[in-house]
């Protein structure tokens, strides 16, 4: 491949992963063909299919490809076929290894409300209409990884379960840096969420975000909110937010809450970013839909490809600076929904039901047209 070309590794995975990825492959081919884009794609195995092929959820060779790529597009992994495989090689281990080796510490979860779907939200239409927020969750630290992490037998018929919330200055600095930088490309507003009222890690979080803001990002509006109050505000009036930055645990919950403001899991994209390379300034990055492999519908051609396509839009925006193309792709998704096309998961009365391929084709046609 030429030095200047954009190298993508496609890891479609299991279940509906390959079905959704096929639509993105068509889109990439169309961009190369019709728009003169210079994407070069390579493919690898991850998850159950990788386990079947070589007994590991991702091979060292595919891992090396992921490390060398400009960006990784990931489908979904897992399924009942692999429920009994050993814990270390279970399908999810492939994703965990990618996150760990690529040091993907920043998880980006947008919550966007497409106008055509606003009426089907569980919240009132005026609360979600036009919603466009971004949750930046710290992904490699905090209580999911802190030590000690164990169950201790106290010997008196009681056991003690221990998890430890740990954050160091550099971890808070780098995640808040990502949030401030992204805010500058949006509405220039960051809300940091922690629980400094009851957690020492929350006190430090608040301090370091405040210092990082003062030192490098004073042009961005910064608010602090307790994470539980933040949960309430997300449901009460989510449009008050632009970028929310929070830790691993709170981010896990708050991003799932935000996701449901806007409808089906088949619509939700995500990105995970690492630190910028010292020389090239490029961040390692992996883009994936929020949904899993959906074994209940896989092979039927009815999976919604929008989450995967919207993940590729994030890739264009964050890995390649192709902001106009990303905007155009998101507009194409909105336009196809405006036209009434719906996969089964988002179907409502009076709309036109389409399958995975038709939905992909329609979005690509709008995007090129
Ligand atoms: P899931 O997200 O695969 O499915 C949940 C429900 O949403 C199902 O009814 C499914 O049909 C539906 N759904 C999901 N994506 C859809 C789409 N694009 N279009 C239409 N409907 C869609 O979660 P579930 O059922 O809990 O897990 C299934 C498998 O996926 C498990 O093996 C699980 O471990 C794995 N998984 C993998 C993830 C990943 O690869 N990152 C994330 C979550 C689960
Ligand atoms: Mg979750």
From TrEMBL:
Major location category of this protein: cytoplasm
Give the EC number.
Answer: 1.1.1.85
Which residues does NAD(+) bind?
79-92, 292-304
Tell me how the cofactor is bound: Binds 1 Mg(2+) or Mn(2+) ion per subunit.
Q: Name one GO molecular function term.
A: NAD binding
Query: Where does the record place the Isopropylmalate dehydrogenase-like domain?
Result: 7-363
Which PROSITE patterns does this chain map to? Answer: IDH_IMDH
Per UniProt, the keywords (alphabetical) are:
Amino-acid biosynthesis, Branched-chain amino acid biosynthesis, Cytoplasm, Leucine biosynthesis, Magnesium, Manganese, Metal-binding, NAD, Oxidoreductase
In this chain, Mg(2+) is annotated as bound at 228, 252, 256
| Catalysed reactions listed for this entry | (2R,3S)-3-isopropylmalate + NAD(+) = 4-methyl-2-oxopentanoate + CO2 + NADH
Supply the Pfam families for this chain.
Answer: Iso_dh (PF00180)
Record keyword Oxidoreductase present: yes
User: Where is this protein found?
Assistant: Cytoplasm
Q: Entry's Gene3D superfamilies? A: Isopropylmalate Dehydrogenase
Cellular component, GO annotation = cytosol
Q: How does it assemble?
A: Homodimer.
Q: What is this protein called?
A: 3-isopropylmalate dehydrogenase
Q: Which organism is it from?
A: Mesorhizobium tianshanense
């Amino acid at each position: 491949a030429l030095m200047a070309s954009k190298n993508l590794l496609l890891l479609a995975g299991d279940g509906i992963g390959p079905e959704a990825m096929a639509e993105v492959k068509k889109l990439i081919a169309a961009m190369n063909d019709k728009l003169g884009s210079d994407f070069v794609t390579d493919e690898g195995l991850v998850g159950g299919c990788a386990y079947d092929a070589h007994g590991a959820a991702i091979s060292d060779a595919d891992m090396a490809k992921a490390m060398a790529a400009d960006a990784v597009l990931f489908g979904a992994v897992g399924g009942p076929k692999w429920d009994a495989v050993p814990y270390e090689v279970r399908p999810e281990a492939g994703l965990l290894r990618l996150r760990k080796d690529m040091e993907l510490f920043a998880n980006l979860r947008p919550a966007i409300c497409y106008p055509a779907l606003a009426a089907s939200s569980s919240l009132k239409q005026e609360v979600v209409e036009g919603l466009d927020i971004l949750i930046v969750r710290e992904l490699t630290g905090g209580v999911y990884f802190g030590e000690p992490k164990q169950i201790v037998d106290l010997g008196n018929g009681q056991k003690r379960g221990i998890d430890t919330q740990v954050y160091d200055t550099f971890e808070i600095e780098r995640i808040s840096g990502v949030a401030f930088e992204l805010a500058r490309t949006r509405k220039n507003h960051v809300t940091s969420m922690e629980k400094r009222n009851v957690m020492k890690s929350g006190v430090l979080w608040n301090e370091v975000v405040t210092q990082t803001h003062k030192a490098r990002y004073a042009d961005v509006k910064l608010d602090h909110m307790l994470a539980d109050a933040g949960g309430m505000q997300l449901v009460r009036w989510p449009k008050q937010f632009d970028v929310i930055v929070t830790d691993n645990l709170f981010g896990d919950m708050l991003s799932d809450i935000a996701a449901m403001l806007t409808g089906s899991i088949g619509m939700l994209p995500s990105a995970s970013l690492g630190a910028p390379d010292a020389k090239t300034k490029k961040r390692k990055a992996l883009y994936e839909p929020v949904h899993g492999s959906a074994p209940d519908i896989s092979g039927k051609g009815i999976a919604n490809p929008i989450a995967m396509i919207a993940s590729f839009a994030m890739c264009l925006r964050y890995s390649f600076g192709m902001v106009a193309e990303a905007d155009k792709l998101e507009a194409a998704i909105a336009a196809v929904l405006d036209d009434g096309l719906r996969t089964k998961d988002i179907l409502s009365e009076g709309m036109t039901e389409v399958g995975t391929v038709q939905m992909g084709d329609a979005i690509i046609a709008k995007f090129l047209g």
